[in-house]
TrEMBL record:
Residues where K(+) binds: T112, T113, G221, T328, T329, N445, V446
Subcellular location: Cell inner membrane
Highest taxon of source: Bacteria
Transmembrane segments: 7-33, 39-59, 71-92, 137-164, 185-208, 238-261, 276-296, 342-364, 403-428, 466-493
InterPro entries given in the database record: Cat_transpt (IPR003445), TrkH (IPR004772)
Family: Belongs to the TrkH potassium transport family.
Keywords: Cell inner membrane, Cell membrane, Ion transport, Membrane, Metal-binding, Potassium, Potassium transport, Transmembrane, Transmembrane helix, Transport
Pfam short name (any one): TrkH
GO cellular component entries: plasma membrane
An annotated Gene Ontology molecular function: potassium:chloride symporter activity
Membrane topology: Multi-pass membrane protein
Protein name: TrkH family potassium uptake protein
Taxon lineage: Bacteria, Pseudomonadati, Bacteroidota, Flavobacteriia, Flavobacteriales
Amino acid sequence: MALNSKIILHIMGLLLLCNGGFMLIAALVSGIYADGATLGIAIASITTLFIGISAMYFTRGHKKEVKRKEGYLIVTFGWIVMSLSGMLPYIFSNAIPDITNAFFETMSGYTTTGASILDDIESLPEGILLWRSLTHWIGGMGIIVLAIAILPLLGIGGMQLFAAEAPGPNTDKLHPRITDTAKRLWFIYLGYTAAETLLLKLAGMTFFDAINHSLATLSTGGFSTKNLSLAYWNDQPLIQYIVILFMFLAGSNFVLSYFAFKGKVQKIIKDEEFKFYSAFIVGFTILAALVVYFQANVPVTEYHPMPLGAGESSFRHSLFQVIAVITTTGFVTADFTGWTPFLTVFFFGLMFMGGSAGSTAGGIKVMRHLLIIKNGLLEFKRTLHINAVIPVRYNNKTVKEHIVYNIIGFFVLYMLLFIIGALVLGALGLDFVSAIGGAASSLGNVGPAFGSLNPLSNFNGLPDLGKWWCCFLMLAGRLELFTVLILLTPYFWKRT
């Protein structure tokens, strides 16, 4: 069966319309601040809107049906098209004139990785800073999920798109109709963003800083308006605790947030993934805080002198960095790679955890780890009782065998791509620590890495080929591997 190329191009046009609309918001803010970037952002917006309208106009006679193959192509190429158009404000405003750097910054934004090539963030125009944060916010919940809330207006069903884009293996739905699910997710996402903006403003941030950091927090992105990231507010603990709270919420399943608003607290309490997600954060924070307090004691003097005692400081910095890495948000309050050798290895391991399924976080996801561990432990029983049928159970329900195989396959592919990713970066001249750190960070959409890519540095020193390779890793990690890698297989392109 031939691919329905017209529907693919039509939806690309729709995505470009969304992108161009958000650019207009950035252009408006740029004009209000008179930062000198207004014309460049406006031209980028007009260009994007024109291409989007043209694509939709010339494909208006398409067959209104999206099959599975078209779904995978739309999601993957949608992200690429969004990134190609999303880099135009950087280029036209001359904020990032180099195409490779502009594409890297944009892909890092949409994939909510948060890795940057910028050496002086604070020198950027306000409109560009807002656009940078908006790329996070758009990519966080997924521009594709936004699109399936709009597609019914065009007479198009969106289930295939949601199957390809939805983060993690969780299939919980809030409503039988997929478009209503998308709308509810976006309302929660928007509500959290507004709430965090208000709280950060009340805690002492400027409104501009508050909205930018809220956009980056709820998307688990990590782009900041300050060169020091959240370390800029090390002398204002309340600001950091507010960000901690919303990083935790962003890294948890948004379906559980919906249940909380409906008063169904028991569903949250009984959810295995949420219990382990919370327990991991508590346990890892206590471990890190004890090591920092008794061995490193760095946060008290790092970046800013701390007015509070070393105990509170050690706890707060440890909690902040544990949540930032697990949820793949990537904000930093300190250079955690310089605390102790033990904690360097510790945080490297956390890069492979990821947040909850159904969250905006990247990484492998807590649910996958749980099911892999459960299946591994059951293998001991199966070895002793060869003929027994012992299924994996999750939330007191039997997990279908094909889902377990899918998760094991995902884990193997993830680790294989990590190894290949590190080998490529090593071949391009990076030292061992920087290569494995860069690969883990890019694939897990974490942001800061290790070695020459540590939280005090950035990815600007990478050779151009290394930046393009990291862009591929970011895209593959953000779209859960299969969506991207399946396009590289010959049988995907065979007619059926």
